[in-house]
Amino acid sequence: xxxxxxxxxxxxxxxxxxxxxxxxxxxxxxxxxxxxxxxxxxxxxxxxxxxxxxxxxxxxxxxxxxxxxxxxxxxxxxxxxxxxxxxxxxxxxxxxxxxxxxxxxxxxxxxxxxxxxxxxxxxxxxxxxxxxxxxxxxxxxxxxxxxxxxxxxxxxxxxxxxxxxxxxxxxxxxxxxxxxxxxxxxxxxxxxxxxxxxxxxxxxxxxxxxxxxxxxxxxxxxxxxxxxxxxxxxxxxxxxxxxxxxxxxxxxxxxxxxxxxxxxxxxxxxxxxxxxxxxxxxxxxxxxxxxxxxxxxxxxxxxxxxxxxxxxxxxxxxxxxxxxxxxxxxxx
Length: 332
Fold this sequence. Notes:
It is built from 14 helices and 13 strands. It is of the alpha/beta class. It folds into 2 domains: 2-150 and 317-330, Rossmann fold (3-Layer(aba) Sandwich), CATH 3.40.50; 156-311, 2-Layer Sandwich (Dihydrodipicolinate Reductase, domain 2). Strands 4-3-2-1-5-6-7 form a 7-stranded mixed sheet, with helices on both faces. The protein has a 6-stranded mixed sheet with strand order 9-11-10-8-12-13. Helix 5 links the parallel strand 5 (87-90) and strand 6 (114-117). Helix 5 (101-110) packs parallel to helix 6 and helix 9 (175-185) crosses helix 10 (190-199). The longest helix has 18 residues, at 120-137. It is globular. The termini are close together.
C-alpha cells in the first residue's frame, strides 16, 4: 500500500517510529506500508519508490540538512494531487476552520484515496461534506484517534455492538484538563496547576481550547455525528470549562468526591443533547478513578446496559497507535 503522511509533529514522528518498530508484525498481516511522501509545514519528502523512515526522523531533527529528496515549499496539497498513493494519513493540528486539514482530506477523498486522520478540525467543520465525499468516491475515512487517542470507541461500536443502540455516552476526553484538575486537588491554584501542566508537557502554551472545554466539545460533535447522524455543529454544544475550578474542587473534597470535566451525549425522542462541564463524582464511581492525563468513557446501551472503558495516556505514542490501527483497517 502506497502511503502519504501529512504532518510531522509529535504524533507524526511517533507514527514513523511505530511503523519501524512494528514492521514485522505488520508484515505478518500481509501488509506493506510503502511511504511515498511525507509533508511538514515547510515542504515535502517525495520518493515514489519508498522513503527510508529512519532517515526522515533523523533529518527532520537536523532541519532536513543534506536531504536531497526534501522539496522546500512543496506543500502537502501538491503532494496529494501529484503523487500516486492509496492512503493519505492527515496529522496536522486541529483548527476552528478545519484548514489546512480539511482541504487535504477533501482532495484525497475526491481522488479516491483512503484517509486516516487524528485531526478533529475538519470533521467538526464539515463532517457531512467529508462523509459524502467518502461515500461518493468509494474511499474510506477513518478517525478513531480524533476523540480519545487509543481508547477504543468507534472500533468497539463497529465490532461489538453492531445492532445495539447508544442511548447515552459520558466521557473524560481531554487529558490536559484531567491533569490540571488533579493538580488543583493536590493543593495547587488553577494558575499553578496550569503552569505545571505546561512545563510537564501536558498542556500547550496555547491552552485555551483545552481549559475552556472547546477541545472536548469538538470530540462530542464528532461522536454525535457518527453515532446519531445528527448534523451537529460546535455551537450546538453547551460548554463550561475549568477556569475558576478551585471552589468546586474544595467542595468535592469535603464531600469525599472528585471533579472531572465531563462530556455528555444523549438522544431523547430524536433530540441530541451535548454538554461539557465540570462534575463531581463519588469515589466509588469509575470516573473518580481516571486520574492524571488518563481518559475514560461510559456507554449506556439499549440492550447491553452500561459499559465502562478507560485507558492510560502517557504521550503522543498512544494517538499514533490509534492511527496505525486505522491504517491497517483501511486495507481491509
